[in-house]
Amino acid sequence: MGVTHKLGIIGFGGMGRNHFDHLTKNYSRLEVKGIFDISPKACDAAIARGTHVYSSLDDILSDPEIDLILVSATNDVHKALSVAAMRAGKNVISEKPVTMNSGELEEIMATAKETEKVFTIDQNRRTNRDFVLMRRNAESGIIGKPIVIESRVEGSRGMPKGWRTLKELGGGMMLDWGVHLIDQLLYMMCDEKVKEVYCKMLSLQYPEVDDNFHLMMTFESGLIAIVEVGTNHYIPHPRWYVMGEKGTIQIDNWNCDGKIIRNISKEDVWDEEIFYTKAGPTKTMAPRSAKSVETVTLSCPEDVEDSLTVVYDQFLDAVEGKAPLTITAEQAMRVMRVMEAAFVSANEKRAVAVDI
Ligand SMILES: NC(=O)c1ccc[n+]([C@@H]2O[C@H](COP(=O)([O-])OP(=O)(O)OC[C@H]3O[C@@H](n4cnc5c(N)ncnc54)[C@H](O)[C@@H]3O)[C@@H](O)[C@H]2O)c1
Question: Are residues 63 and 134 in the same domain?
Answer without folding.
Answer: no
